[in-house]
Amino acid sequence: MIDHVDVLIVGGGPVGATLALALKASGLQVMVLEARHDFSRKPDPRTLALSYGSKLILERMGIWSALPQPTSIETIHISHEGGLGRSVLSAEQEGIPALGYVVNYAALDQALHEALLQSNVHYLTGAQVTQTRATQSYAVADFDFQGASHQVTARLLALADGGRNQSGVSGAERHVRDYRQTAVVAQVKTELPHKQVAYERFTPDGPVALLPSGDGFALVWTATPEAAEAILQLDDTAFMHRLHAHFGDRLGGFVQAGHRASFPLSLSYTKPVTGPRKVALGNAAQMLHPVAGQGFNLGLRDAWELATEILHVSPSNIGSAEMLAHYSSKRRMDTAGGILFTDALVRVFSNDNPLLHHSRGAALIGLDLLPPLKSLVARKMIFGARG
């Protein structure tokens, strides 16, 4: 087994796999260590709202064509419960085919997995990383694979494992804010067709998002932990009735509900994201609230920008302090913008303070009446801070 590479990636999920595939034609030695060993297709209700910018990245790598039937989002309708304010974002107004696309998480994961298997990347599944460390000259990872212990060194170690590796970036701190919210996710169908429209409705307990998915919607219903637990216990009829009461009549009634799952919501981010010979990206760098669908798209841009940076330096400078400082500088505005934007939405719109109620409505009305501002918001959501 090879014991030294140019780039070592810990984590072969969508972000780590994207980084590896973006480097596959570079001539560099790239290794991916992925803890999972079973990639058989299993039912998975999770969906991803990919921005148009993320679609372009996946297209460049030849992954987009392997995804089964992504559903386009051509319009986003934003409103808040109990108020008149609303705003509508439109792909046509931005001069692009779609604002985003809804894809199944498992389908994307599988497509990336198969692409890695067919590439020249050293791709090890079932590899359990036990420790990472770094010097000024190289990084080291110890891992267990096929019943034996191994060690590999690298010019650069990229942590894309969702933050599970405890020996992360040297000197970095993980900042966490618990929103005391839980997301309930499910596939649902409504009486009226979605017509490629996504809905984001803000309520005091948290946003309710309906994303067009196939002939129905992917639901992300944010609630307090106690309310979410009660929602999970409802039978399908009671669940759809309660969702209808919460969301309103815009799509008629809800006529079908699939399996429900839930997960807690918080904001967490690593600072700094780079250290000697190491860099954190994706969820290992930042985990955002799902409002506005920014988290995964931000992680994908991390991977693409890091690959671009690696390709722009000589092999001997990969992982150098200069290269990592340049990458960190390029990503700083996009990352900070994503964190501040989603955190502000949660704090302002998921709030029962009566003083904020009319301000929320006025903000949505103002956004709709100011096309340049609306376009700016849309393009930042689609392409990040550099949009």
UniProtKB/TrEMBL annotation:
This is 2-octaprenyl-6-methoxyphenol hydroxylase. InterPro entries: FAD-bd (IPR002938), FAD/NAD-bd_sf (IPR036188), Ubi_Hdrlase_CS (IPR018168), UbiH/COQ6 (IPR010971), UbiH/COQ6_monooxygenase (IPR051205). Pfam families: FAD_binding_3 (PF01494). SUPFAM superfamilies: FAD/NAD(P)-binding domain. Keywords: FAD, Flavoprotein, Monooxygenase, Oxidoreductase. Residues 5-332 form the FAD-binding domain. The keyword Iron-sulfur does not apply. Pathway: Cofactor biosynthesis; ubiquinone biosynthesis. One of its GO terms (molecular function) is monooxygenase activity. Belongs to the UbiH/COQ6 family. Its cofactor is FAD. One of its GO terms (biological process) is ubiquinone biosynthetic process.
